[in-house]
Amino acid sequence: MKYKGLIFRMTAIGLSTFITLLFIEIVLRIFGPKYYRFDNRSHEEYYTNPRGYHIPIRKAGRYTVYGLKYNESPEIYRLPDKVLKNSKIKKNLKILGLGDSFTYGRGVKYKDIYLTKLEKLLSQNYGRIGIKNCGMPAADIGDMIRIYLYEVHKKIFPLVVYGFVLNDFGLPGSEEITGLDFIDINNAGNRFNPLRKNLAIVNFVFYSLEKYRLHKITIQAYKNAFKGECGERGFRKLKELNGIIETTGGRLVLMIFPLLYDFEDYPFKEIHTKIIDFCNKENIPVLDLLPSFSQYKAKELWANPTDHHPNEIAHNVAANELYKFLQNNKLLNNISNNKQK
Least packed by Cβ within 10 Å: which of 10, 127, 189, 251? Predict the structure, then answer.
């Protein structure tokens, strides 16, 4: 009888625990953090398509993988000399675009990249002004100098637009940012965890631990990039880039992309202020996209839940803001073929 009572109590405890865990699992599946299927870093292939912007491109077992058609992707335009060899627009190239994957257009169609849209906006009120997009994924400030020096040997560009991202000075301490980086998922070293995908409780535990561990580390890494030796080196390189462009007869315009993260309590405002102050001191026209992007929730501007590059909405905002900025600061006067209508 004694053992029967013990078995009964253990069964009751086990059953109540199971019911409690099942209830928590159901609640977390509805209201808890989501975990999406992906392998590591984004390469314009996604297992979800929440906005219907991408198309099915292949099957991975029972999963559909979404992405872009080849002729819609920036990839087809990475050899501009071949593309432009027999094109009339080559003679009208007046603006050079520099930047990393944000400018390159990771995750968006070529027609939706901000430089492509800017070219179309310019054609409405100015003569045809060709823009050469030299955005390169993972490029930093040093790469911008090398890319510009390569391009300027072939052609002088009166205007150079640099789409600046906050990791362009480097990211000291980034080796500690492993797992799901909530601030910039593009830079997070992460592998798909089937257990997290299938059990919301397990995902919630991992999510909470990662957020506690990574939040401060990641914020501090970005802040450190603009302090001390790293910051001095980065600003020195930016000054060098501006000097080279001026020496070769061009004008640099800097456009700051905010990280697409928590615009309500954005933790990197002081970095934006440092960049703006530097540009004002060096007489570099600077456009900060943070005020315009802050009209949205950060996730509304993601290419995909597993890819925090700017989507077509963000690129459209950037194009319109840049167009107005160039007009208001009379930066198009010396390169337009026609007077403004």
Answer: 10
Domain of 96: which CATH number? 3.40.50.1110
Residue 86, pLDDT > 50, answer no
Region of residue 107 (left: phi > 0; alpha: psi -120 to 50; beta: else): left
Q: What is the pLDDT of residue 79?
A: 47
User: Does pLDDT of 104 surpass 80?
Assistant: yes
User: Rounded to 5 degrees, what angle do the CA atoms 69, 71, 74 make?
Assistant: 95
- Using CB atoms within 10 A of its CB, is residue 161 exposed (0-12), middle (13-18) or buried (19+)? buried
Q: Is 196 inside a domain boundary?
A: no
Q: Read off φ and ψ for residue 165, nearest 5 degrees.
A: -115, 150
Count the alpha carbons within 13 Å of 112 in the hemisphere toward its beta carbon. 21
Q: Which residues contact 319 (CB under 8 A, 6 or more apart)?
A: 114, 115, 117, 118, 121
Q: Does residue 20 belong to any structural domain of this protein?
A: no
Strand 159-165 relative to strand 286-288, pairing: unpaired
- pLDDT tens for 288-312 read 999 999 999 999 999 988 888 999 9
Q: How many Å apart are CA 139 and CA 237, to the nearest integer?
A: 13
Amino acid at 26: I
Full residue range of the structural domain in which residue 245 is found: 89-172+221-328
* Torsions phi, psi for 325 (to 5 deg): -65, -45
The answer to whether position 248 is within a domain reads yes
What pLDDT is stored for residue 253 in this prediction?
98
| Domain count along the chain | 1
Establish if 31 belongs to a structural domain. Answer: no
DSSP label at residue 259? P
